[in-house]
Structure formats: structure tokens, C-alpha cells
Amino acid sequence: MRRAGHPGPGTVPRWRFDPTPTGFVLELDESWDADREHWTCREMFRADISEEGITQLSVYCTGDWDATLRAKHAAAVTLIRP
User: Fold this and answer.
1) Span 5-16, mean pLDDT?
2) I need a labelling partner for 28 at 20 to 30 A (CA). Which of 53, 58, 62, 64 fits?
3) Which residues contact 42 (CB under 8 A, 6 or more apart)?
């Protein structure tokens, strides 16, 4: 899913996987280079699982951020963690 959504090759420098009572939550940071720019995004996937496999899937994404948007965000927000 990640590879289909962005030009490759990209990297996932940070990720976190947490099981839940009904499935899991996966959070990741992604970065890649395209069109002479370095891009990043943050995504979160929440899945419910049954014997049939994944029965519900929600995907949340910040959208693709270039250097200008990352700088604007850094000037306005102090993150608890990077």
C-alpha cells in the first residue's frame, strides 16, 4: 500500500505497531525524493481482524509535505516526540 502510493525508493525511518483487542494500529513516517524535492508524510492504519482477515481498515495521512510545509509546521508547533 505504501509503495503504491509514492514514488520509490522511499524509507520508513520511524514506525510503531500496537496490538489492540480487535486488531492493531500501525503508525509510520515515510520519506522519499521526487521532482528534486525531499518529501515526508505520517500515516496511521487502524485494522480490525477476524478469522477471515482484516475486516475493517482506516488509513489516516498528513498528506505529502515538502521542505516549505515542514518549516511552516516546525515554526508553529512543538511536537511531544519527533
Assistant:
1) 81
2) 53
3) 27, 28, 29, 30, 61, 62
